[in-house]
TrEMBL record, chain A:
Keyword Iron: yes
SMART domains: FeoA (SM00899)
Keyword presence, Iron: yes
Organism: Anaerobutyricum hallii DSM 3353
Domain Ferrous iron transporter FeoA-like: 1-69
Pfam families, per database record: FeoA
Listed name of the protein: FeoA domain protein
MF term (GO), any: transition metal ion binding
Automatic annotation (TrEMBL), chain B:
InterPro entries: Fe2_transport_prot-B, Fe2_transport_prot_B_C, FeoB_Cyto, FeoB_GTPase, G_FEOB_dom, Gate_dom, P-loop_NTPase, Small_GTP-bd
UniProt xrefs under NCBIfam families: feoB, small_GTP
One GO cellular component term: plasma membrane
Top-rank taxon: Bacteria
Domain annotation FeoB-type G: ranges: 2-163
Species of provenance: Anaerobutyricum hallii
UniProt protein name: Ferrous iron transport protein B
Keyword rRNA-binding found: no
Residues that hold Mg(2+) according to the record: 20-21, 23-24
Amino acid sequence: MPLSMVKAGEPNVIKKVGGKSETKKFLENLGFVVGGLVTVISEINGSLIVNVKDSRVAIGKDMANKILV
Amino acid sequence: MSVKIALAGNPNCGKTTLFNALTGSNQFVGNWPGVTVEKKEGKLKGHKDVVIMDLPGIYSLSPYTLEEVVARNYLIGERPDAIINIVDGTNIERNLYLSTQIMELGIPVIMAINMMDLLEKSGEKIDIAKLGKDLGCEVVEISALKGTGIKKAAEKAVALAQSKKSAEVVHSFDKKVEDAIDAVKVMLGSQVPEEQKRFFAIKLLERDDKIVEQLNTVPDVSNEIKALEDAFDDDTESIITNERYVYISSVVADSCKKNGAKKLTTSDKIDRIVTNRWLALPIFAVVMFIVYYVSVSTVGDWATTWANDGVFGDGWHLFGIKSLFIPSVPSIVEGALNAVGCADWLSGLILDGIVAGVGAVLGFVPQMLVLFIFLAFLESCGYMARVAFIMDRIFRKFGLSGKSFIPMLIGTGCGVPGVMASRTIENDRDRKMTIMTTTFIPCGAKLPIIALIAGALFNGAWWVAPSAYFVGIAAIICSGIILKKTKMFAGEPAPFVMELPAYHMPTVSNVLRSMWERAWSFIKKAGTIILLSTIILWFLMNFGWVDGNFGMLEAEQLNDSILATIGNVIAPIFAPLGWGDWKMAVAAVTGLIAKENVVGTFGILFGFAEVAEDGSEFWGQLANSLPAVAAYSFLVFNLLCAPCFAAMGAIKREMNNIKWFFFAIGYQCLLAYVVGLCIYQVGTLITAGTFGIGTVVAFVLIIGFIYLLFRPYKESNTLNVNVKSVAKAK
């Protein structure tokens, strides 16, 4: 399911990173790689703050929909 | 022999703190050629011949952001003698991702693990010796904030640089990937030095089109790419990214002891509250209110009053003690000029022109210092990144980014620091849009104009001042929507992805340094462009033809000045806006120096040498000379048109491109003219029933405006960073 629907606080394994190749690449550079863990810290209207590889990353709703866990 | 050492690392890893600690005050701040990415260079303390280069914070050496391209062009093209790679120890996996790429460049690398103190607190351990052996480079522990270990790191880097050894890559990927890299390395032949071959080979496999520009002959690697993609069922970039992370995981597992049970960090707990769905906006509003209130209303206002009325006005008392009177700058200068028997015209130029003009601008400096301290604090403690996140969804709707809010808020005080604050917006398109629209918000200097029009023509009606802010906000929103549909802005919206640094207490020296960097750039502006423009305007206002003789004029003879002549020429342009009188035109022109000049110019034009800030002496005369609708159109024009010279200078500096500067100024003036015209024409139709060509034009413009606002438009999703010019400028 897309990351935007995940419950806060639970670690999830990333299954797929979608989107345009530039965006995808940027996310991968930030640590969003298949097999990695991602935890949602907080959520405002679908936009998320997540923990990935020990750093906090804020992602917009449209982007959060393209990361599958 | 001079040695060049580059600092490279992720954003928020403590790179700037380390740079400041290593170089002290020995810094040179500029821009990388052709872009607004900041370039910082400094000399290592105690080593005159060691130059430290602070590269922009980056996550990788891919070509997707301007910062990455700038950093990587520097590393490939200029080849520093050594690199200090700063790694945030609390976030080691993600930081090592960049490290593996830096090590492929063939430049000797020292790895400095930062935030070791934080790491120890949380009970985590990194085996430095093991990590260094696994990565093939020397690793040192530092705390940039506390200054521990940094000297050792710098000395090791210098020794390494002088040894002239090139680094060797010890990490390796999957066998199939390594085979492909080796095959491409052979194809590269002799055009790339041996130690750089791995970097170029990987970039070619990743289909990095920017690397092609660096090569004379580009080998055809499509077979290797296809073989890899078939074998791994993914694109080559992702394959290599994955290989890097797989390798890093093995290294980290080997040398780092992590805390098993992950608790929420303090930073996360703060985020739970500060970015909470319900509390985020109220907390944000309170923070902004405090910043605004303190820097504009209380401390800032006190400081500005001191600077304007004391230092550049009637003098002031040191510490408020009556006996310690310090005369104002103008009176000191006047005394000095009288003492040497200076010619009238020259003392006029120096006092009324230069001292008054530049002084009016410098008067804003104390207020700006207060604002900049707040900003530097909010930025370095980590809250600013959250603001961008909170505001992004709202601002995105009209083509701006969440970060645009900060410049606009500051713009209510003064447009110059407002425009300069747009620098924190990384996305080029969002930043340009913000620069163009920030000055629509009425700044402190526009308030006297509002007070004048409200008092003289609307009997001080309560709604005039709020309507000015409303016009400003509406102009920003409409401009955002219209501009994002134009070709110039289309095609570059980046989805919102942003790292949030952990909250931490910034050091006093870093906050002060950041404040001073901003303030200094403003002061420099006052000394150059503003100085020049005040001299020219003073000349235009004080010289003219009286009875056929050219010469200097008395204050009452402003009607004969060159400025009045120019005013008479340009006045008809403003006739459709309802204020075709040359005096109004001249007042608007003097507003370009500083907006508060508008009221003062009116005063002189109506025969008063000195007037109150809101010009109450000539309210009656002004009310008789033009109808209320025309006055409102005059007000709106002055609010929206090109800002003062100081702010225009800031726009030019931040746009860093003359074409964009003129586009911004032109757009502002055009919008101001169109809105002013519509207000006057529609206003007279309603109040007086006048119908003419102007009314028709106004309605056509309104329809056109509505069309631009609502025309269909498809948002493009491609990210297009134009970096060719960067590569060429090198």
